[in-house]
Amino acid sequence: MLGPEFSDVLRLAASGDPAAFGALWRDTHPSLLRYLRLSAGEAAEDLASEVWLEVARRIARFRGGELEFRGWLFTMARRRLIDQHRYQTRHPELPTADTDRLDRPAADDTVAAALEGISTETALAFIATLPRDQAEIIVLRVVVGLDAAQVARIVGKSPGAVRVAAHRGLRTLAARLAGGGFAAPGPGAAAPLPEPWQPAGEV
Amino acid sequence: MRAFNGSLAEMPLLSRLIPRRVRRPAADEAAAERLLAGQGAGPGASAGQQALELLLRAAAGPGTGKELSGEDAAVAAFVSAVTASGSGTANARARGRARAGKRPLAGRVPILAAVAAMAVVAGLSGTAAANALPAPLQRLAHAVFGAPAPAAPGRPAPVISASPRNGSTPSHGAIAGHPAASPGTAGQSRRSSAKAKATATPAPAGTAGPAPAGTAGSGGSGNGNGKGNGNGNGNGNGNGNGKGNGNGNGKGNGKGKGNGG
């Protein structure tokens, strides 16, 4: 989170300053990518690029603080996910090769970076085993840092329903951790997608 | 049979009836909210909550090098987008104004309003010329632009001639019982192509014949029944009953044949 300097950064980015836009991107892009990977897998990078292009086109008209900016950004991201889900429903694709291996980091990456990636990706993959609505809400609250009301606006539910789903998800995660159901995927593995993503409520 | 140890959870039926919120300790919800807000499980947290905290902290960790590797491309895309569309604040305002100008009916509203107003005026004029307006409106039209005056109460309704002659424009001017607007005037045809203004000239007393076309006798008040055939040659037959005609004998019946032109 940028904190107090967010308003200045946003103003500069709105006036077309590349450095300010870069600061916004560095602050928000990792959580955006993690949120998109939860449902879109390897298409997350493309979707994130489309979201940032939309941000670049519309940022001059945005008004609000940092949390509102994140809510705006992830609302656009969720719409992209819904569009992609509709497209895949109409144009199903059957993968013929395991391309996940091709997207692994290069072997000469530093060990620290690889370990860092492992821990984050493993945690996200474990969260992704939850039902989709619970996983989405937990990522929006924990990874993106939004409160229940903002998440409710994004996913189209009431704040109470968002809290209930998040608490159920945490209880499930805690039970799986206690029961030894935590199986860490290998590095670079995509989050499991047990069933097609169904948006809980379109915004 | 197992002995009841006093716990609510040991009572299967009761546990189904009691809402889950009652059975779930509030401390768990508070801890869950702390975990979701990134504040940690807090002191005295169970091992499960601590493991959950580690998991969520890992998920919310800082961006990795792989995640941040596309910054240059993203900034380049931003610059090209700004260059292509002028994404600055001032440009956004200008685009907003331009977009407002591109709304489908923007700028055409005055034209449409003028066309609609002209259509209404033309329709009302035609209706007034046909003497088909309600009496108050017809009087107003009569006063404003000389439309036929409405029929007086008790008089026969105006009859509109529908037989144009000589192929000219039909004239509405043949109005039976139409009181002349001016003394001695017998019948008016308002069409430009048949501007037959029949002026009744009172004949001398005792004569009843066509009066020479001309001006009505001064001082005569006449009821003129004008028939304007609207054939463009300005022929009008006027029957004028005048009082106080030119010779001053006060009464005269005259038939005037008006030539309009």
Poorly predicted spans of chain B: 1-11, 161-224, 226-236, 248-252
Helix segment tally of chain A: 8
How would a crystallographer describe the biggest sheet of chain B?
A: 4 strands, mixed
Number of helices of chain B: 8
**Biggest sheet: strand arrangement of chain B:** 3-6-5-4
Q: In what range is the share of β-strand residues of chain B? A: 5-15%
What spatial form of chain A do the alpha-carbon principal axes imply? globular
Instruction: Report mean pLDDT of chain B, rounded to a whole number.
Output: 62
Structural class of chain A: mainly alpha
Shape of chain B: elongated
Identify low-pLDDT runs of chain A.
Answer: 101-116, 183-203
Radius of gyration of chain A: 18 Å
Portion in strands of chain A? under 5%
Distance between the termini of chain B: 125 Å
H and E string of chain B: HHHHHHHHEEEEEE
* Quaternary assembly: heterodimer
Q: Topology as H/E string of chain A? A: HHHHHHHH
Specify the helix fraction band of chain A.
55-70%
Biggest β-sheet strands, sense, barrel of chain A:
none
Alpha carbon gyration radius of chain B: 48 Å
- Greatest interface: A-B, 51 and 43 residues
Structure write-up:
The complex is a heterodimer of chains A (203) and B (261). With 203 residues, chain A is mainly α. In chain A, 64% of the residues lie in helices and 0% in strands. Chain A has helices spanning 6-14, 18-40, 44-58, 66-90, 111-127, 132-143, 148-155, 159-178. Chain A is globular and about 50 Å long. With 261 residues, chain B is of the alpha+beta class. Chain B has 8 helices and 6 strands. Chain B has helices at residues 12-17, 20-23, 26-36, 47-59, 71-85, 89-101, 109-129, 135-145; strands at 185-188, 197-199, 210-211, 221-228, 235-243, 251-259. Chain B starts with 11 loop residues before the first helix and ends with a strand. Classes of the chains: A mainly alpha (203), B alpha+beta (261). At the A-B interface, α2, α3, α5, α6 and α8 of A face α3, α4, α5 and α6 of B.
